[in-house]
Design goal:
Strands 1, 2, 3, 4, 5, 6, 7, 8 and 9 form a 9-stranded antiparallel β-sheet that branches. It contains 1 helix and 9 strands. Strand 4 and strand 5 form a beta hairpin. The longest helix is centred in the C-terminal third of the chain and has 5 residues. The protein is mostly beta strands.
């Protein structure tokens, strides 16, 4: 199983509610340092979450990573993660990826699902080539 992990830092959070629905905008930064890619999240990383009474919370995160692929070539990776938060707090996503790296093109078709992991007081986005 291939995984692609991004460490996330929350920068700001904005929220509004009408009593039955809550919308959150979460601005974040982060970095990635794995066997395939080393780089950071460019300014503008955002996660939008909508919570409605009686429904699970949906989320949509969009961001661009900039750095070096495993061959040392400069590249960027756009990631859109759409998903939901379960009642137990677990988060599952489906990634959509675009990259200008010929070495990392496989990310566009092979990364099929993702999840959020909390450990060591940090947040990690884990993308995987298998269905979670």
């Amino acid at each position: 199983m291939k995984t692609f992990v991004i460490k996330i830092r929350i920068n700001e959070c904005f929220e509004t509610t009408n009593g039955s629905q809550t919308a959150k905008i979460i601005l974040f930064s982060g970095e990635c340092d794995n066997e395939y890619f080393k780089g950071h999240v460019l300014d503008g990383g955002v996660d939008t979450q909508i919570q409605s009474i009686g429904k699970r919370t949906t989320l949509s995160a969009r961001y661009i990573l900039e750095g070096l692929d495993y061959r040392g070539n400069t590249c960027k990776i756009f990631i859109e993660n759409n998903g939901y938060i379960e009642e137990d707090g677990s988060i599952h996503t489906r990634p959509f990826i675009i990259t200008d790296s010929s070495e990392l093109k496989w990310l566009e078709t092979q990364m099929k699902s993702g999840y959020i992991e909390h450990k060591d007081n940090s947040i990690y986005v884990v993308l995987t080539d298998s269905i979670c």
